[in-house]
């Protein structure tokens, strides 16, 4: 994995892929699957919707950091598996044969098998709406990886794989932030 | 367009398509293009990230309602065009030849050409993070439409079209909300 400019990290999230979020609670690592996410700005800041119903939430609240790992379609069954069991009684790194990798800034682990990893600090929790606000502090990408297609959760148990890419950079030029 | 059960409306947003948001400011209709959105719960509530930099924000804040319209790939150039001009000096319905349709609950118009339309009330504005919280109150879908593929903005001027769909309903059964 090579370093990815922070100014480009929002492009990994904006299209709405299902993501994995890792945490470390001081004792052990955990992973959750999330598709309720959005970009908040280009710094980049992100929002994720989660709360007490997720075992990872306690670690997020306590240690105020996490890693957003972006999986690709070849990892879909692990992604669904991670989303349907709990860190309360499962070591998900072991169960799904994923490799935790030490990050540069945060204690929560990167996931070796993912396309990209974004280290984040929790900057706010909007309790009323179960929104956790994250600030990205480092990012890396496995640019050599052959499979780069991400997966989008529909929410009904089906998933849409990335299809073809359409280029509208010329039309969008006035709206693109510096560094993209 | 036929009515869509509100309990299914989140499935139109969860996968992260670029959407159009219409507003009515008491005098005229407007449309903006947004891809910073997420689902907050299954009722469904949604969050969108927007603020004073969007002309539509004043109408959202004042009239506290909008319509989320979900466009498909055949509408991409209209979607990009809408996102790169301003309602301050442009009648976007006229310019992009879109047809406003009266909704059931809110004053902001549905867009006839879109795959689906979700009427929403603004229930909160989290000013600190530029997050607008929406509650869906009615939804409709053009089920007869042939083109159903949505488009995902990467954020660098390129867009990813929906590819193939993978079914994991069996694996996900324990996690699916009632009514999906």
Largest interface: A-B, 60 and 60 residues
Principal-axis shape of chain A equals globular
Identify low-pLDDT runs of chain A.
none
Percent of residues in β-strands of chain A: 35-45%
Main sheet summary of chain A = 8 strands, antiparallel
Give the total of beta strands of chain A.
Answer: 12
Order of helices and strands of chain A: EEEEEHEHHEEEEEEH
Number of helices of chain A: 4
SSE class of chain A: mainly beta
Termini separation of chain A comes to 19 Å
If you had to describe this structure to a student in words, what would you say it looks like?
- The structure is a homodimer of 180-residue chains.
- Chain A is mainly β and 180 residues long.
- In chain A, 13% of the residues lie in helices and 38% in strands.
- Chain A contains four helices and twelve strands; from the N terminus they run βββββαβααββββββα.
- In chain A, strands 1, 2, 3, 4, 5, 6, 9 and 10 form an eight-stranded antiparallel β-sheet that branches. In chain A, strands 7-8 form a two-stranded antiparallel ribbon. The first copy, chain A, has a two-stranded antiparallel sheet with strand order 11-12.
- The longest helix of chain A has 8 residues, at 56-63.
- The model of chain A has no long low-confidence stretch (mean pLDDT 96).
- At the A-B interface, strand 4, strand 5, helix 2, strand 11 and strand 12 of A face strand 4, strand 5, helix 2, strand 11 and strand 12 of B.
């Amino acid at each position: 994995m090579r370093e990815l400019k922070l100014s480009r990290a929002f492009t990994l999230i904006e299209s709405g892929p299902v993501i994995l979020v890792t945490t470390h609670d001081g004792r052990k690592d955990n992973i959750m699957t999330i598709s309720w996410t959005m970009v908040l700005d280009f710094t980049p800041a992100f929002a994720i919707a989660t709360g007490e119903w997720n075992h990872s939430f306690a670690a997020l609240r306590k240690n105020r950091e996490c890693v957003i790992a972006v999986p690709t379609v070849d990892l879909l069954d692990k992604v669904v598996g991670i989303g349907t069991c709990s860190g309360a009684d499962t070591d998900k790194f072991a169960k799904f044969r994923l490799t935790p990798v030490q990050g540069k800034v945060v204690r929560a682990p990167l996931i070796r098998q993912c396309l990209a990893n974004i280290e984040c600090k929790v900057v706010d929790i909007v309790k009323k709406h179960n929104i956790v606000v994250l600030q990205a502090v480092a990012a890396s990408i496995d640019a050599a990886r052959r499979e780069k297609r991400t997966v989008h959760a529909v929410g009904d148990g089906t998933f849409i794989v990335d299809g073809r890419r359409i280029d509208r950079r010329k039309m969008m030029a006035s709206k693109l932030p510096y560094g993209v």
